[in-house]
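Schema walkthrough. Field components (list of strings):
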Amino acid sequence: QVQLVESGGGVVQPGRSLRLSCAVSGFTFSSFGMHWVRQAPGKGLEWVAVIWNDGSIKSYADSVKGRLTISRDNSKDTLFLQMNSLRAEDTAVYYCARDHNLAASGIDYWGQGTLVTVSS
Amino acid sequence: QSALTQPASVSGSPGQSITISCTGTSSDVGYYNLVFWYQQHPGKVPKVIIYEASKRPSGVSNRFSGSTSGNTASLTISGLEAEDEADYYCSSYAGSSLLVFGGGTKLTVL
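Field assembly_structure (string):
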């Protein structure tokens, strides 16, 4: 069955960096686009970024552009999110999620999420 | 990148039907047939219940249905059950590999 397992979350000071990983199994990773979606405590879902199946196209929400970078390693079935210059408003549960297609259309599977807390 | 508009809350009694709207623009909901609906119970991971506006994944109850008209997508839940009480979110493809979510709707089953 499809599984997505995030790791790398934790408490980090404002301005510092963090790298999230998402290991997947149960499907052909290189055939699907992948997303990061976040949810601040008590708030709604916010789309963060997407990367096409082959890594050729990446797209970001305006709120994270220039600070967060999505990448993938299809040889290791792993998705990444490099988070730089972190701010308090980046505090959220970060979900790794699979797109329904090879690019960007909508999400059909979600990981369990990893909590990132930005605080001094 | 503006969020799609959903009502903050809706409610209904067991057995009734409710509809949740998701309003976008002619650049997202009104242009692409790529509206997805998700159900999220408290403390749980979101789950897709409708994809591509009106298709239902296997295993999802046929009490859930989706439709679109112009710039607005709708999720209808018929025969409300207590277990339907949850938060519901819509998303739409918005072009240029961008995705946008609605603000979410809290469904209360009275």
